[in-house]
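Lab notebook, design round three. We kept the backbone fixed and only want residue identities now. Task for the bench partner: fill in a sequence for the structure below.
Input structure tokens:
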């Protein structure tokens, strides 16, 4: 599911520990949103937000680590 992020209000976004410091691979997630994990591109904070179901988050991250 995608969103423009406006319904999240004042959530605090954190950059993935896998993002590097020179502007590449910058993925941010927001904690504390019931039932979903919002994900966005930190280089485009006003762009879209992908919402991943909380139950699917662990398998999603595991699949990415396997790439």
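Proposed sequence:
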């Amino acid at each position: 599911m995608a969103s423009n992020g406006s319904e999240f209000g004042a959530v605090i976004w954190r950059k993935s520990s896998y993002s590097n410091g020179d502007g590449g691979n910058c993925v941010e997630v927001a904690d504390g949103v019931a039932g979903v994990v919002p994900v966005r591109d930190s280089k485009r904070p006003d762009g879209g937000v992908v919402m991943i179901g909380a139950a699917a988050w662990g398998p999603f991250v595991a699949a990415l680590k396997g790439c």
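Keep this in mind before ordering anything: The two ends are 22 Å apart (CA to CA).
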